[in-house]
Design goal:
globular, single chain, 12 helices, eight-stranded parallel beta barrel, alpha/beta
Length: 294
Amino acid sequence: MAVFKGAGVAIVTPMKENLDVNYDKLEELVNEQIAGGTDAIVIVGTTGESSTMTEAEHIEVIRACVEFTKHRVPVIAGTGSNCTRTAVYLSQEAQRVGADALLVVTPYYNKATQNGLISHFTQIAQSVKTPVIMYNIPGRTGCNMQPETVAHLFNHVENIVGLKEATGNMAQAYKTLDLTDGKLEMYSGEDGLILPMLAIGALGVISVWSNIAPADVHSLCQSFFDGDIETARSIQRKGLPLIDALFSEVNPIPVKKALNLMGKDAGSLRSPLTEMEEASAQKLAAAMKAYGLL
């Protein structure tokens, strides 16, 4: 059975004024997401500012999210690192505190070879029993996991079950599915490509957009699964200007701004991320108003 099918939210980590994690607000956001139809919570990923957390914080945020979710939807914990030993440790700890699956990004900065990626993901997956979804986002990591590498890992490591595909390369995504006989659990990592990714066989999306419009992203996926392609197409098309604004500066700067504009009190960002520039913020507010969120 798939880890999840539909819309998984790459949820933000709300912060207090002193930039400590705001656990009360995180619980509110988790509950709002589930009420809005979100099919899975993806915690401490890129959108959750995992790169500026200590290991202790990272694990505690996962534990808290598992507690808040109360098994209503799967919790998928980001446990990737550019150090294999660190990723193994975070993965084991995420399993210990109850995560349902792991999202493991390709190692960044190191620029591992394809053999290095096979070694990295194999060591991580074999250190746990929890299902592993690999995450390929070369625009952030400087490392592109090739379809043949994904297929090798999927075919040789039992609990490697899926891929968050964020290359923006539809031909690469399709080749990856082809090499795994369509059995790989693929999720779109691009909000602007949800519908085309579903059309080639993806099971859903791990979404930034869902932070502010969970019901719509869920409905887009469900409409496709129900065969109502026109409704899915309409939701995707309506969302494109908003998605463009949500990525007008590096994620998660705009989505935290959007939540704050909606009165959700997501707080600020940890350095080196900074507050949204005024021109971008105005573009975002205009897109949100046009969408009906403000």
